[in-house]
Amino acid sequence: MKKEDFSQLFDDVKNGVIEKKEALGKLGDFIQKNYPMFGLHRYDEDFRAELLVSFLERGDKLFDTYNPKKTDFFKFFFYYILGLISSTKRYMVRKSIKETLIFEENVISYSTREKNYSIQNTFKSRMLYSTKKKSKEYKPYDFEQLKDIFSKISSKSTDKKVLVLALKSCFYLTEIQIKKVCELYHLEEKIIYDSIQYCKMSVISKSMKLQKILERRNYNYFHHRKCEKRITELEECVDRAETKIIKDRLVKLDGIHYNHWQALNRKFSEGFLYLRPTNQTIADLLSISVRQVSYYLKLARNEIQNNSKNDSEE
To answer: At CA 102, angle to CA 54 and CA 249, rounded to 5?
Structure first.
């Protein structure tokens, strides 16, 4: 095709002699046969095929935006293809990044599932070939039994401060602390463990909410690290001008994930969704009033403040 043929092609489309699709097909054949003219010899066949498909899908805009008064149709078509090459390069970079991230996520997910599967199989095989006799079925104390036990303790002991604190911080007690509470009040460990479980179940909805927020925080941290990695890789690319747009978007996305991650960390450091049963739950379990529970907590808080003051003075 000569330059005059390009102008005639546009006139034929404008006058309705041929349809846009037919004209695009002729221009597509020209690109395919003369691709070195546009510098496409520097790219592989996959890239040229992607460019050609993109041109055939969106090239009808070429006839709508062309103004014959400004330049001839061949020159307008030539620079349109150069612009399309740049946009196709950006698309291929985005596609490569997306495929890499999906691959990394699948590898991590597969490793996690493989590890869990190995642990489950090991546990099942141990259970299958175990020669130990089955232990007696564990029967936990119900609420009424626990209430009855603690009511007897309440009548004997006047100071229930440690017991109230233990139940209030049931999510964070260690085994050593539980043993000390049992020794102090002469209780079986089973009673304290069942009481802790009862208090935990009273805030199960709050616990599920906390778990979701923790997962969201971990998600933001994970994608923040991935964005950092991709930004570093893009900085090492030779053709930095072409990757600048992708890098800017990744920097913006990285900032979003980083800010969300840090915001949740600040909330947690300030006591956000600190899991603890209500004073009413503890009062019902210990057969005492809510005011007594509040009194014991206030007493413990004052003791901690006084001890910290004495330590600072020394």
So the answer is: 65
